Amino acid sequence: MEHKRVWTNNELEDLVRQLSLALEATQLGIWQHNIAKNQTRWDEQLQRIYGVEKGLLDVVWLESVHPDDLVAAQTIFEQAVDSRCDYASEFRIVTPEGYVRHIRSRAKFFIDVNSDPCFIGAEWDVTEDVLRATQLAREHEAAERSRAEARHAADHDYLTGLRNRRAFDRLLDEDLGDNVTEMALAHIDIDHFKEINDRFGHAGGDKVLKHVAHIIRSVVSHDEVGVRLGGDEFAVLVKQGAERLHTVVTAIRAALAFPVEIDATSVQIECSIGLTTAPKSDANTLLSYSDIALYEAKRSGRNRDTLFSPEMAAKAAASRSMLETIRRGIENSDFLPYYQVQVDAKSGQVVGLEALARWASPGGLRTPVDFLELAAMNGLLEKLDDMILRKVLSDLAQWTLADLDPPRVSVNLSAARLEDPTLPQKLARLSIPKGRVSFELIETIFLDKLSNQAKANIAAIRDLGIGIEIDDLGSGHASLLGLLELKPDRVKLDKLLVIPAGHNVAPRTLVSSLVQIARALGIEVVAEGVETEQLADTMAKLGVDILQGYAFGQPQPAQEIVSHFRSRDPHRRSACAIMQP
Fold it and tell me: Closest by alpha carbon to 531, among 552, 512, 511, 515?
């Protein structure tokens, strides 16, 4: 019996040692609470976890619990006491050194040998696990936020915050909902945006883009979509059809009526808008149709709304075909100058030539009316200007080598090219003979004053010995402010003003006034569209310096115009003396 008791004691000691080793390895702290006597016993590991030395019967657990967790922890314990059931709890404690630790607690209810209700529990420090989980949660949240930002960046325009073309295309491919039967689209393009960029720089252009985007956001409802398609093009997608689209476009127009301030300058923003509708099943045709309508709006004068029609599609297809032919013509150098003489109104001497672009197309010789508008709308005017200028310089060189004495030649220069900061360097490389070439500005200077870049380019052009002329004076395009800014060498009276002056007092009075203004500024005046002897005499009497028109010859190629050089007789007293039959 004694042997058996020794064996049992040894076995019990082994079991205690194993349990102690297990508790030490797991760093579990053990406690026991006698509910009847309100006494708690803590083992050494639990004392180390709490960082305090506890007496065997001290009841001080709640003194260490974090103030923010105190009520919850105490409530869980009291509910377990009342129900006499097992419980689990997690809470924070504050050590005497001020460290916050996260504790996990598990307890079981039992009745001891004295029939007292008790709890025995284990607690362990899970601070590292909690902090690791918190860090992982933060990293996961950051990753989700980053992915959301990446998705937003991929689907939205960085400058305006509107959806981009990628998101718009995907939207048209998605299911738009059973309640949607008809889609409508407004395709918006800012008129003269390049000129705004040229004058105010990209910062000014960005301000205009943001301004238009703000207007779009302010008028669309929650189920409508505002899009920046790219560049200065925007779109508004409406799911309620044509009537709602009309309301949206009307609101956009009303907002555009208020100018935007750029560099302390009030600038009126105008837009061309192409409109179209389509069944939900045909949503992908919206953009192609609205693009055709937009093109028609711009072709018809800009700053207007145009609704798509099938006839427009046929016209657009023809324009696209023509545009491709024009592009090939530029690549093949098929454009060349034809020259029209300009004569002195008093002596009849040939004093100048205007180089007019002609296109030796596969279908025959074409005038600017067939290609100039398309070229300008598609950014080809600068290439065309450059090609004509180079051919003019080549003709001048050949005439000079042939001992001919060619007069000054006026060559068109687009307003866009005038804003090119590299223009002076490009011209300098061409070795343009001084006094032989003038640049004629053929486009409206639509802003109130020239940009600093344009002014600098004009000064550099003049330093190269190239003259400056303004076309269409009196047509309402070239303003007197433009005259003061440019101080050109010559201005050309528009033929729409010149021709009526031959038989009408009002335009004749206007011509006389313009001549006086130009003379006061030291500017020569050229009248174009002079087709009769009577009109030539009228223009001469009104003080016009130079005459141009069919009365003196139609535009001719370089090899034919040379016959007029020999007509440069300073003794002729009448311009009509060299009139063509």
Answer: 552
CA angle 473, 475, 478 (to 5 degrees): 50
Give the model's pLDDT for residue 316: 83
Could you tell me which residues are beta bridge partners of residue 110? 118
| 2-130, CATH topology level | Beta-Lactamase (3.30.450)
* Residues ≥6 apart with Cβ < 8 Å to 448: 265, 481
Could you give the 3-state DSSP secondary structure of residue 245?
helix
Whole-number average pLDDT of the chain: 86
Strand order in the sheet with 182-190: 163-164, 225-230, 233-238, 182-190, 271-279, 305-307
pTM above the 0.90 mark? Answer: no
d(CA 131, CA 139): 12
Domain boundaries, the chain: 2-130, 156-308, 320-568
* Stretch among 243-247, 272-276, 370-374, 416-420 having the lowest mean pLDDT: 416-420
Residue among 521, 510, 511, 520 at smallest CA distance from 485:
521
Hey, what CATH topology would domain 320-568 get? TIM Barrel (3.20.20)
156-308: CATH, from 3.40.50.740, 3.30.70.270, 3.10.20.70, 1.20.1530.20: 3.30.70.270
